[in-house]
Amino acid sequence: MNLAGFILASFSLMVQLYVDKYRRDDLQRTLQELENLQTPRLSEKYSVLLLEEGGPPPPASDPQFFHNLIGYDGRTSINNLFVSVPQSNAGLENKGRHITATGKMLGGSGSHNGNVYYRGSPRDFDNYARLTGDASWAYENMLHHFKHVESFRGWLVNEEDRADCYGTSGPIIVTTDTPPVLSAWFEAGNELGYKIRDANAYQEESTPGVFGEPYEKIKPKIKDHVVLIIPLNGPFEENIGEKFNFLVNFLSLSLHEAKTKALVGTLTHNIFPQKGHSTNDKSHILIDEKKSAYGVAYKRHGIPQIAHARREVILSCDTLSSPMLLIRSGIGPKARLEKAEIPVKSPLPGVGSNLRDHVAVLLQFTASNPNSTLSPVLRDDEVETEFLKFQGNPRSGYLARMTEGPQAFIVSSQAKAAGEGDWPDLQLGLVQDPVNLFATKFAVILARPESVGEVGFNISAYRRNELDANDVSLAVLDYKYLTNPRDESALLEGISIAFGIMEGTSPFQAMGVKYTGETPEACVNFPQNSVHFWRCYIKQVSRGWLHPVGSCKMGHDSDPMAVVDSKSRVRGIQNLRVVDASILPKLPNTNISPAVIVLAEKFVSELLSGKG
Q1: DSSP structure class, residue 274
Q2: Residue span of the signal peptide, if any (predicted)?
Q3: What is the pTM of this model?
Q4: 3-state percent breakdown (helix, strand, coil) of the chain, nearest 5
Q5: Could you give the CA distance from residue 225 to residue 219 in angstroms, rounded to a whole number?
Q6: CA distance 425 to 446
Q7: What is the CA radius of gyration of the chain?
Q8: What pLDDT is stored for residue 11 in this prediction?
Q9: Is 283 exposed, middle or buried (0-12, 13-18, 19+ CB in 10 A)?
């Protein structure tokens, strides 16, 4: 067995043993709670209630270097694996089917993602303000929320940006990574006429692109806390404690204040359905005849339970699961609800529509110069040593480092032609392959795709109660990747820029860097440097970048497809909000984690101040 296979097998075993033990222990706690229950209302004990499909993140999910191995691992119980319908223009090597893995644990995918921290362009947030008619989403206002949650500890290219753009006392520690190749990256950018700037603060308006350092989020400062949100069909936790999970920790700290100030309201726990409750055994939001949400019905270890909300129910299931729970609860396209025989509570045609994701191609490059800084290569005799070091302390050594390297944000020619010269639509960067320690990939990411997909609802599976009608069986996932011709054109330009960097600049030429990627079988008859070859290549190997947003988008009152308003309130239903990536009407032009965190911080801040 090769190293990658051995590591994956080891991780899978460690994760599964951890999950199995947690499930056994949690089942015992559940049964004990049922046996000792004196009253169906536990408001004296719980002020907030988190419903989460999984348990705590397993220790094996901590290391950043192997986040893809854990994130895509379907052999354990920490992921939901959603498989798309066949795509016509992307990933044809895999028959057009794309897997989106969502973490099934506290914090979801934030518990095992790549830890990359880029806010996105100011234009992204200004566009949210325009689409919602709410100026509070403009970047000049959102910057306050970013600074409030950050404790920035890193090095900056532009040191003068620190005071104006970064917070220093927030719960989330953000730093910069400075790999050996960073100086070559900056030199290459200068040669090509790009500016070396902070890629987080303002992405430097009116320039063709920005070459910047990689940012990462590291273990945050923790306090004792309780957590609200994520109502799924699984166990709940209180006083969750220290986790290597930045989204849960951040929200926990914020909502600890909400508890003490009694502004969020209380979710009271009710073990058995009472008279008048729906007998539907599928997880759903409880909505009364006045169109007001008052709780959730769910299962814990297969035992039906109900949680009452004295004030609000807040939904944070993610872009693929939130629309499924809304539809199960009678909120969604009217014809679809009626066909599924689900009583219509609020006919919102936009639920499940507007699905968006970044799409990317990976190009493999190899350096022939043994002194290259492109990829710090381990000798054969060092691999075992580093792996043993990693097992002893997963936060030290080569195998604990980030896989993502330096990045660049580039404005394509078609974006410039559209008057968007200050709004990058391409993200380029180096990626270390954790499966092959001796390979370096160059990621060309479509940062502002125009193609729009849908999270459909499998009515047949719902009516058959297939797999208890869980989200994976219910979601009909169609990203419609690259169906807008602008997207393919932007990727083609990004590939050209990638070759210009890696084979056309002196620092990488000095390393002897050459393209060493494999040719897809379907493309062998095209000349390798032709446009026809790269169009074929994109169709064969392109993949989603695991950043889905938009399926419950927020929008202006005049937008019939908007699911929530700018304050996250579900249209037509009182006391119900969605607070997750699904409400973003369009993608930020980079990794979505910081945007999701800041939307949550905005929501909490407004709720505490009475503006929500």
Answers
A1: P
A2: 1-17
A3: 0.83
A4: 35, 20, 45
A5: 16
A6: 6
A7: 24
A8: 54
A9: buried
The mean of the pLDDT values for the chain is: 77
State yes or no: 114 annotated in a binding site: yes
Q: How confident is the model at residue 280 (pLDDT cuts 50, 70, 90)?
A: very low
Q: Is the Cβ–Cβ distance between 78 and 104 less than 8 Å?
A: yes
Buried b (16+ CB within 10 A) or exposed e, 164-201: ebbbeebbbbbbbbebebbebbbbbbeebebebbbbbb
- The candidate with the shortest Cα–Cα distance to 51, out of 286, 218, 342, is 286
Q: In the numeric block, which tokens belong to residue 425?
A: 């639509």
- Give 376's contacts (C-beta < 8 A, 6+ positions apart): 179, 180, 398
Name the amino acid, one letter, at 166.
Y
Q: Are 269 and 235 in contact (CB under 8 A)?
A: no
Express each pLDDT in 552-594 by its tens digit: 999 999 999 999 999 999 999 999 999 999 999 999 999 998 9
What is the C-alpha to C-alpha distance for residues 237 and 285, in angstroms, rounded to an integer?
A: 19
68 is in an annotated binding site: no
Residues 6+ away with beta carbon under 8 Å from 190: 196
For the segment 171-176, the average pLDDT, to the nearest whole number, is 81
User: Which one-letter DSSP state was computed for residue 482?
Assistant: T
Q: Indicate whether 250 pLDDT > 60.
A: no
113 marked ligand binding residue: yes
Is position 19 annotated in a ligand binding site? no
Residue 274: pLDDT over 60: no
pLDDT at 323: 96
40-262+352-609 maps to which CATH number?
A: 3.30.560.10
∠ CA 135-136-139 to the nearest 5 degrees? 90
Cβ atoms of 443 and 547 within 8 Å: the answer is: no
* pLDDT tens digits, one per residue of 175-231: 887 788 888 999 999 999 888 888 887 776 445 667 776 666 554 332 222 222 222
Q: How confident is the model at residue 36 (pLDDT cuts 50, 70, 90)?
A: very low
Give CA–CA dist 450/479, Å, rounded: 11
Tokens representing residue 383 in the block = 């691999």
Q: What is the chain's length?
A: 612
Single-letter code of the amino acid located at 22: Y
Six token digits for residue 162: 């620190």
Domain boundaries, the chain: 40-262+352-609
